[in-house]
Amino acid sequence: MSQPDLRCYAPATERNREPILTILKSVLPANGTVLEIASGTGQHAVFFAPRLTPRHWLPSDPNPSARNSITSWIAAEDIETLYPPLDINVTQQDWERQIIDWQSHHPKQAPAIAAIVNINMIHISPWAASEGLFTGAENLLSPNGVLYLYGPFKRNGQHTAPSNEAFDASLRSQNSQWGVRDLESVTELAHQHHFRLADVFPMPANNFSLVFQYEGSRS
Length: 219
Ligand SMILES: C[S@@+](CC[C@H](N)C(=O)[O-])C[C@H]1O[C@@H](n2cnc3c(N)ncnc32)[C@H](O)[C@@H]1O
Known about the structure:
By secondary structure, the protein is an alpha/beta fold. The chain has helices spanning 11-27, 43-51, 64-77, 96-105, 127-140, 162-174, 183-192; strands at residues 33-37, 56-58, 113-119, 146-151, 153-154, 181-182, 195-203, 207-214. The site of S-adenosylmethionine (SAM) has 22 residues, from loops.
């Protein structure tokens, strides 16, 4: 029996995927598995995975509808280096254990996690999600591993565009714990977890790509 088509569509992914891909090609380690946190519809996963080979791509999302969509996108595209989505919520303590367990079940096929990609999540989740993301990333990545963030950011407490200020107000009206984050606060959080800010790329529509590199000092 064929599976139902549960693919969801987020129009923004089609606008931002090419600029993001260009950055990912230049900053990701050449090999290994890329863990995507907060994959959403799965459109990014099916677009990036075949264009970033020989890297493997592991999508995830805590939302069951998102995982259904990712699964349907994967079924429609059939990409050898793309794994089925995991249920990862970075506010859960020790979420990275799920990845380590998953890897232990794929000892031959799945290369080690070389990078983590997180697109448009940290402003649409409580600050605890950013903290959990860096905590788990520190435990998962090896030295020189990359944590890539994409989204809108304030710089030194100031919005970089009126549209981002309006977006921030709209986010906060939906949930007081959401909101456009300050690039410097995220960088300070990164330092606490032994990541250095390796690059900042301005992106279309007043977004940024932030590239953090793990310096390998966990005890
Ligand atoms: C705006 S969507 C972005 C999805 C996708 N990355 C994109 O750019 O289209 C935000 C996503 O973050 C996920 N998310 C929210 N809180 C999360 C958490 N604590 N851990 C992991 N993912 C989370 C949601 O389920 C949702 O899929």
